[in-house]
Write a structure and sequence with these properties.
By secondary structure, the protein is mainly α. Helix content is 56%, strand content 4%. It is elongated, with a radius of gyration of 28 Å.
Amino acid sequence: MALFSRSGNLPPTRYGYLPPKGAVGLRWMCPADGCGRGGPDAPSDRWPRRCPGCGGEVVTFSLAEPWQHAAKRVELDARLNGSPSYGDPARARAEDLLWAADDALRGGRAGLVPELAAALSGLSAGPRPAGRDHVGGQLFLLVRLLTDHQEWGIAVDVLRRWRGSVRCDDLKDNAQRTEARMLASSMVHFLDEAPATRSTDRQTVWEALREFQPVVAGITTAEFDRSWVRLRHTMAGRRDPEEEWGRELERLAAADAAAEPRGLPARTPSRMEILGRYTAKGPENSSLDAGRIWDVCLRPYLNVSPERLAAAVLPVGGWAVYGASRCLRELGVHDEEGQAYGAIWDAGLEFYRTTGVGAEHLSFNDFQRWVARHGPDSW
């Protein structure tokens, strides 16, 4: 079968852009109706001249930069003519404004960007065809484009306009839910990227995020929730104590990956302390990764006896013994009537009480355990 080299003479794109000699192609596709082979999942090293499925000529699907930027311009021109075969012109108009902003920044013409950004933001304030809302996605990309080029002031204006136009009256609607998540994520991205010297811009976006977070609290991702907890500390000028716990989790995970734990894992008191603090704080209020907690603080103890765990944590006490009690309760694979199990459970509850937490925060089983040993109204 004849092949194209990725850096040789490439076929045109489906929109008619002919890559110049030396352009680097990334993916090919078959444009024939009912076929569509290739695309993002096609092999990228060398390309067939003809589709291995239908035998038709293939086209270039994507290119490396800067050729992809030029190919996108030809694509947008084709789509903007309104031809039904080229998709939705409304979406093309939004993509066209993003492309123009990108082109201006690439060419050192940043002065043109505010007007283009305002025009794109303005599209979000107009009527949107139901189920075909593409403006939010372009605004999401625009914020990242602006932060990449350190255009902080323009990015703030985009976020402000976007917040004013985003619909949140029915977050069960997938389009509304998706755009609200993208806006919240974009605010977090700005705060993560903007330097401390842009204190006014950072504070403006932080205030907007604080106002918006309760609106989207029920639909946000776990990643956003962790970022929200972290930013509440950093924006208040405080160090998030979970940062060090997170670093310790990563160190322990790396050590486990290098040598699978056998028997009692190394640094068990440290693992149990992290688990205890994480559990007490509540996963919904923690910036730590629940998957990493499982990998480091729970899974390695599936086959560790309560006796061995007790020997490691009872002399330490504190958060370590409380975490060990949570480990045993969470795994649920050991006999809770055993002496060592009971010693850990009781010591964990004794310590937890000293933190000042109310009895209403105990689980049913924890409360029953405490009452059986200390009597009612004793917490």
